[in-house]
Amino acid sequence: MKSCRRRLLVVIVGVLAATGGANAQAKFPPDSDNAALRYWAALTEMRDKVGDDTTQELLSATLKGEIPWDENKLGPILDANAGALQAMQRGAKLPECVWGLDYRLGVSTPAHMLMRARSLERLNTVEGIRELAKGNGEAAVNTWLAGIRFSQDVGRGGPVIVAMVGSAMLTDILPAITAQARQGKLRPAQKKALYEAIQQLPEDGFDWGIAWGVEYAIADQFLHQLQTSSDPKAIYEKYGYDAPKGLPPTVDELRAYEEYMLAAQAALREPVSKARARADDLESKMRRLAEPELLLATDFSQSNDARARVATQREELVRALASN
Question: Residue 248 carries which DSSP code?
Fold first, then answer.
């Protein structure tokens, strides 16, 4: 090994001598502003299994504030995933997030990515609780804010399933912070920092209309493929599914699907309470769709209920942070 290193040094010295060592520079390439690159690295670096069932129950109880932090039982899990957590937190500081999945090609979000993102968020939220227990309140606040940003970035830019996962991540983080605040574990300056940040958080976490737009684009492309195919049943059989009745879809059926999806998308950009008042009408539109379109239609109420959970927990956290 030593002889190999000596030979390498000889080569380096020779190259520098030939090119003029004074002009040589050690330089990293410029950093990317894309948070997703750090997030992908974090998800790859995560440990495949985060404890057994008992440990998972302990993590959940700690998240909810039902039990105090246990360094002996949970500390090693966080230490084993420290690299993943740090990579995610670095990514959360970057201004944009493009995951790089091409939905025009029909590529769906990998399920394992969503599962790992949810697990990483839970570990990060518990890491904040750990920092608070150690007396590092400022570090706890920064850790939680990174987790909130990560959840938003997961929920944006893909179809509805990623918005659902992103909202579920937020409904892990927000009640966890609320529990710590209600137990008096945050100092006034830390509560203020969190309060100001949460006030900037959209009522429902992020723009759900973007997710519905992606969902509609994917389904619309597929429906037009069915409409123009000489054998639309074969498209389903290719993927191992039974073909529905009513193929190929008609122009009127495609228009009805478009009207439903765009109306739901517009409703999801309204306040949660106002959107809820449109649920019955939208569900009626969905039920009247032909079978191929109905199979692709996304349930408006599911999305709006997920928004409502985020909005409720956000408001509860704001009240907990505002109280003395």
Answer: S
Confidence (pTM): 0.88
CB-based burial, 61-90: b 16+ in 10 Å, e otherwise: ebbebeeeeeeeebeebbeebeebbebbbb
- pLDDT at position 318, please? 97
Mean pLDDT of the chain: 91
Any idea which residue has 């199979």 for tokens? 295
Task: Check residue 16 and give its pLDDT.
Answer: 43
Q: How many CB atoms lie within 10 A of CB 45?
A: 16
- Report d(CA 304, CA 26) in Å as an integer: 52
Three-state SS at 2: helix
Between CA 232 and CA 228 the distance in angstroms is: 8
Residue 176 has pLDDT above 70, yes or no: yes
Please give the Cα distance from 147 to 102 (Å, whole number).
25
Please give the full DSSP string across 119-171, using - where no structure is assigned.
HHHHHHHHHHHHHHHTT-HHHHHHHHHHHHHHHHHHHSSS-HHHHHHHHHHHH
Percent of the chain that is helix, strand, coil (3-state, to 5): 70, 0, 30
